[in-house]
């Protein structure tokens, strides 16, 4: 996200802030579904978590509207986002709070405080049980229901249950009936022994109610509400109406938070077009604490890929096994359980099955988003290639090869080549060249050698040639390439030089007869050329550093008595740097295949060299 004063095809102005091209693409893929969104900064850190009834409308509003104050500052730092869909707004609310307490995003100021708890309705485990609102689940034998994000609704439902299915409301035996007993809201533990059977009947009804079987209770309340309305008791009717609403809110099923503390990982997947998308939901402390997503091409059968992924996932370092793993029906649970030595199940109904469906739904959305982003990227890169080809007046350059040279004051001269296919780098085709005929800084000679070696080999091996060659440089490199291609190899491949300005930034292209071809700095063709130039320069520099470092090491080792060419190779291959060789023990040095006396000599000599460097 940047602040701009003008408009171009890649950035859309929204007040003072524009969405990056990457975000613009992702905004088009948002679902019309409830869920949570996680905003990330340039480092990939989550800086804000929000919930939405409609993810598409809510997330787009950040980038399609003007903002001020903290919101504007937040939006200016967003570089990416991800979403987790839920079944309803209530689940989104629960997940939002959980994610905020997990990630502590900088901009969630108001919601960062607190312990992340939600109220539960509890039936205590004692001789005369009572109903309570509590904030934590304990292993004390009590029955817990919830948690409930709407505290007021949970409280009102508790009062309804205490009136409808009374247990004990008083502090216990006190020789006389309490006020609640006279109000029919206590079974009388305050002055008599209440039969266990009576408590069990009430508890059975309460548990049924809190598990969602509320039709009879709602029918009774509705009847009383209509009766109050007919008797013009409108306040009483409104009170009963609100009671119905609170019951609906309290007993509505939700999947983000469970009613037990079992550590549980939930796996599911979705496949399409030869790809598999896998998601894992981690349930900890009865909450969805984390989500992991992966997408990759399928090599074998999807179920085999999925099973292999799960096994490999838990073979990773610091990846503890949960008490329970949930997987779809198609997975061989017995095999997985025996390999991982933990419980593996497939839910058939209820909350866990709903969670499985949610994980699959998220897997599908991630894969669909990936395909569409890939299509966007393909269209954009192909468009850049087509635009560049038009500028150069050549057929579409599906394959572009680019060369650059690197050296330090004429020493350790190397060349490198990168390949871009349809606008994207193909790193498998990159090549490095140690120059054989050039021993000083000579751009023309270096270009002659590397171009000759590259294309004479392609001709000899009957391999395809590129559609365009781009040289990182101007007239000298351009002339050298054309000389080799036309006069030595009899090839007619289009060639252009990528020229930089005095600030070392891509400026324009140069072709035959030193003709300059300008590129608009906001055009796709310019971005493609700039990327190719940066990439080939990076690749050449990195290769040169490797060669120079190795030569430097080699020259240092040459001064050590007893270290010949073979010993030098062994040390360099094993330790890579002088510091690592110097820090190695005598035994570690001997393990490379050198004698103890040579190892001691290497150790002593390098210790002295390093001390001199530090001085």
What would you note in describing this structure?
With 615 residues, the protein is α+β, with helices and mostly antiparallel strands. The protein has five domains: 2-103, GIY-YIG endonuclease (3-Layer(aba) Sandwich), CATH 3.40.1440.10; 120-251, no CATH class; 264-368, 2-Layer Sandwich (archaeoglobus fulgidus dsm 4304 fold); 399-544, Nucleotidyltransferase, domain 5 (2-Layer Sandwich); 559-614, Orthogonal Bundle (DNA polymerase, domain 1). 46% of the residues lie in helices and 20% in strands. It has 19 helices and 22 strands. Strands 15, 16, 17, 18, 19, 20, 21 and 22 form an eight-stranded mixed sheet that branches. Strand 7 and strand 8 (131-134) form a beta hairpin. The protein is elongated, with a radius of gyration of 35 Å.
CATH class division of the largest domain: Alpha Beta
CATH architecture of the largest domain: 2-Layer Sandwich
Radius of gyration, rounded? Answer: 35 Å
Distance between the ends = 46 Å
The averaged pLDDT comes out at 80
Number of domains: 5
Task: Report on the biggest sheet.
Answer: 8 strands, mixed
Global geometry: elongated
Oligomer: single chain
Helices, by number, come to 19
* Helical percentage: 40-55%
Tell me the CATH superfamily of the largest domain: UvrC, RNAse H endonuclease domain
Annotation, overall tally of beta strands: 22
Low-confidence stretches: 1-16, 110-116
Q: What's the CATH topology name of the largest domain?
A: Nucleotidyltransferase, domain 5
By secondary-structure content and strand pairing, the structural class works out as: alpha+beta
């Amino acid at each position: 996200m940047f602040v701009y004063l003008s408009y171009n095809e890649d950035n859309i102005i929204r007040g003072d802030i524009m969405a990056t091209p990457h975000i613009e693409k992702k905004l088009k893929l948002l679902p019309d579904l409830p869920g949570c969104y996680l905003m990330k900064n340039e480092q990939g850190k989550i800086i804000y978590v929000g919930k939405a009834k409609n993810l598409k409308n809510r997330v787009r509003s950040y980038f399609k509207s003007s903002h001020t104050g903290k919101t504007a500052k937040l939006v200016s730092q967003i570089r990416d986002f991800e979403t987790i869909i839920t079944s309803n707004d209530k689940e989104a609310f629960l997940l939002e709070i959980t994610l905020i307490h997990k990630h502590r995003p900088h901009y969630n100021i108001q919601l960062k405080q607190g312990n992340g708890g939600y109220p539960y309705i509890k039936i205590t485990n004692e001789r005369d049980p009572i109903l309570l609102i509590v904030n934590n689940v304990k292993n004390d034998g009590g029955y817990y229901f919830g948690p409930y994000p709407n505290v007021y609704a949970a409280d009102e439902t508790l009062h309804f249950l205490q009136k409808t299915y009374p247990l004990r409301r008083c502090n216990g035996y006190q020789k006389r009936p309490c006020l609640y007993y006279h109000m029919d809201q206590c079974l009388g533990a305050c002055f008599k022994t209440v039969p266990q059977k009576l408590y069990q009947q009430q508890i059975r009804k309460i548990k049924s109610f809190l598990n969602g079987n509320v039709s009879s209770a709602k029918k009774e309340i509705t009847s009383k509400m209509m009766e109050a309305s007919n008797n013009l008791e409108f306040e009483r009717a409104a009170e009963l109406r609100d009671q119905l609403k609170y019951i609906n809110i309290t007993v509505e099923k939700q999947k983000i938070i469970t009613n037990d503390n079992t550590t549980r990982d939930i796996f599911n997947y979705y496949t399409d077009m030869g790809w598999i998308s896998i998601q894992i939901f981690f349930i900890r402390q009865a909450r969805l604490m984390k989500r992991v997503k992966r997408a990759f091409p399928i090599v074998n059968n999807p179920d085999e890929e999925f099973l292999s992924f799960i096994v490999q996932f838990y073979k990773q370092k610091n990846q503890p096994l949960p008490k329970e793993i949930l997987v779809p029906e198609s997975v061989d649970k017995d095999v997985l359980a025996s390999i991982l030595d933990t419980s593996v199940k497939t839910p058939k109904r209820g909350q866990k099955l709903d969670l499985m469906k949610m994980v699959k739904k998220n897997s599908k959305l991630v894969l669909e988003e990936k395909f569409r982003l890939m299509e966007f990227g393909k269209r954009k890169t192909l468009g850049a290639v087509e635009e560049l080809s038009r500028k150069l007046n050549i057929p579409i350059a599906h394959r572009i090869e680019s060369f650059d040279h690197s050296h330090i004051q004429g020493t350790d001269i190397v060349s490198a080549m990168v390949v871009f296919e349809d606008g994207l780098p193909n790193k498998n085709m990159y090549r490095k060249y140690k120059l054989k005929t050039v021993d000083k800084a000579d751009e023309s000679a270096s270009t002659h050698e590397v171009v000759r070696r590259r294309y004479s080999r392609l001709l000899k091996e009957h391999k395809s040639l590129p559609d365009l060659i781009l040289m990182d440089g101007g007239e000298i490199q351009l002339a050298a390439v054309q000389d080799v291609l036309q006069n030595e190899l009899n090839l007619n491949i289009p060639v252009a030089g990528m020229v930089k300005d005095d600030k070392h930034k891509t400026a324009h292209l140069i072709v035959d007869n030193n003709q300059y071809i300008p590129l608009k700095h906001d055009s796709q063709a310019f971005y493609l050329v700039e990327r190719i130039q940066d990439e080939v320069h990076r690749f050449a520099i990195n290769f040169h550093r490797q060669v120079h470092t190795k030569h430097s090491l080699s020259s240092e080792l040459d001064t050590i008595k007893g270290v010949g060419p073979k010993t030098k190779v062994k040390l360099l291959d094993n330790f890579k740097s002088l510091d690592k060789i110097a820090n190695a023990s005598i035994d570690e040095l001997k393990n490379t295949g050198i004698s103890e006396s040579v190892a001691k000599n290497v150790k002593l000599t390098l210790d002295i060299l390093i001390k001199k460097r530090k001085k």
